Each structure stands twice: as structure tokens, then as C-alpha cells.
């Protein structure tokens, strides 16, 4: 039977996970920029010419419209970043909940989290919700770059969570 930690630490764990998720999210952009340099010039040019509005911005616009709030175009990028950070923080908190149930969870769990978020989020849900074109519209290097950025997220989220968890124990 898995050991479950005392209830009074639940909020602490969730906050540690959310903070770790925010750090992981912040590291995705530099990771993606670095991985862009590994792409062929042809693929980089294709992405530049066919770039679409980021899925997080589309989602922010749709959410604001559903709430009856006008989101000025000048604020869409900022709102999209907000969506991205909240999403990353929620998954960081989820990661903390997994650690509550399985304290000895293996070190690669963050990488698994990142791979799962890339596969389910980027490759399935984002196109299914029409937040981006279908996966086949992008070159393989774009998918690999996104996978790499999500692995950076997962690894950083797990590492920061473990550091915080130990430091604040």
C-alpha cells in the first residue's frame, strides 16, 4: 500500500509543484530557441513563413470571448503567456500529487510528464480543438523541437519540485 503523506502538507506540496511548474514553463522558451538552431534552414524558414498564432493565444482569445470580455489584440500575447504558465503550474501541481502517493517515484518521472504533455497536448488535443493546424502540417523537426521543449519542462519541473520539497521539509 502506498504511503500517503499527512493532509496538512497537501497545500504545501501543491504550491511547491505549481512553483516548480512555473519554473519549468519559463525554461521552455529558451530550450525551444536553442533547439531551433538545430533545425535545417529550410524548416526554420517554413516555420517563419507559415507561423500561426500560438495555441495559448487562441485559447486566451476564446476564453475571453466566452466570458464576454474583449481581449485587445495587443494583449493576446501576454494573455497567451498567462495561459501557458497556468497550464504549466497546474501540471506541476499534478506532479506533486503523484509524488504524494509515490514518494519514491523515479527520477525520470519529469521527463515522462514532459513527453506525455507533448504527445497528448501538442500532438492530439491542440489540433483536435482547432488551436493549431494538424500535426502533418509541420515538418518532423518542429515536432522534435516541441518534444525537446516539453522534456525541458518536465525535467525542470521535477528537479525544482524535488529541490523545494527537500529544502522545505
How would you briefly describe this protein structure?
73% of the residues lie in helices and 0% in strands. With 169 residues, it is mainly alpha-helical. It is globular.
Summarize the structure in words.
It is a single chain. By secondary structure, the chain is an all-alpha fold. It is 73% helix and 0% strand. The chain has one domain. Helix 1 crosses helix 4, helix 3 crosses helix 4 and helix 5 packs across helix 6. The radius of gyration is 17 Å and the shape is globular. It starts with 9 loop residues before the first helix and ends with a helix. The relative contact order is 0.20. The mean pLDDT is 91.
Order of helices and strands: HHHHHH
In the residues, how many domains can be counted? 1
Please tally the helical runs, counting DSSP H or I stretches of 4 or more residues.
Answer: 6
Strand content: under 5%
Number of strands: 0
Low-confidence stretches: none
**Mean pLDDT level:** 91
**Major β-sheet profile:** none
Question: Distance between termini?
Answer: 23 Å
The class by helix and strand makeup works out as mainly alpha
Shape: globular
Tell me the Rg in angstroms: 17 Å
Helix content: over 70%
Topology at a glance:
Blueprint: H1 10-36, H2 41-50, H3 55-66, H4 76-101, H5 109-128, H6 140-167
Feature tags:
single chain; 169 residues; mainly alpha; 6 helices; 73% helix; 0% strand; globular
Amino acid at each position: 500500500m502506498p504511503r500517503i503523506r499527512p493532509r496538512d502538507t497537501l497545500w504545501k506540496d501543491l504550491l511547491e509543484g505549481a512553483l516548480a511548474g512555473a519554473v519549468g514553463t519559463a525554461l521552455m522558451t529558451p530550450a525551444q530557441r536553442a533547439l531551433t538552431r538545430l533545425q535545417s534552414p529550410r524548416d526554420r524558414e517554413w516555420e517563419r513563413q507559415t507561423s500561426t498564432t500560438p495555441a495559448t493565444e487562441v485559447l486566451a482569445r476564446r476564453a475571453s470571448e466566452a466570458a464576454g470580455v474583449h481581449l485587445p489584440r495587443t494583449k493576446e500575447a501576454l494573455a497567451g503567456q498567462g495561459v501557458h504558465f497556468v497550464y504549466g503550474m497546474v501540471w506541476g501541481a499534478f506532479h506533486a500529487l503523484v509524488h504524494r502517493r509515490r514518494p519514491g517515484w523515479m527520477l525520470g518521472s519529469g521527463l515522462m510528464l514532459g513527453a506525455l504533455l507533448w504527445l497528448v497536448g501538442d500532438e492530439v488535443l491542440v489540433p483536435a480543438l482547432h488551436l493549431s493546424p494538424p500535426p502533418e502540417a509541420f515538418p518532423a523537426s518542429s515536432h522534435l523541437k516541441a518534444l525537446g521543449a516539453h522534456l525541458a519542462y518536465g525535467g525542470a519541473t521535477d528537479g525544482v519540485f524535488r529541490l523545494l520539497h527537500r529544502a522545505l521539509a
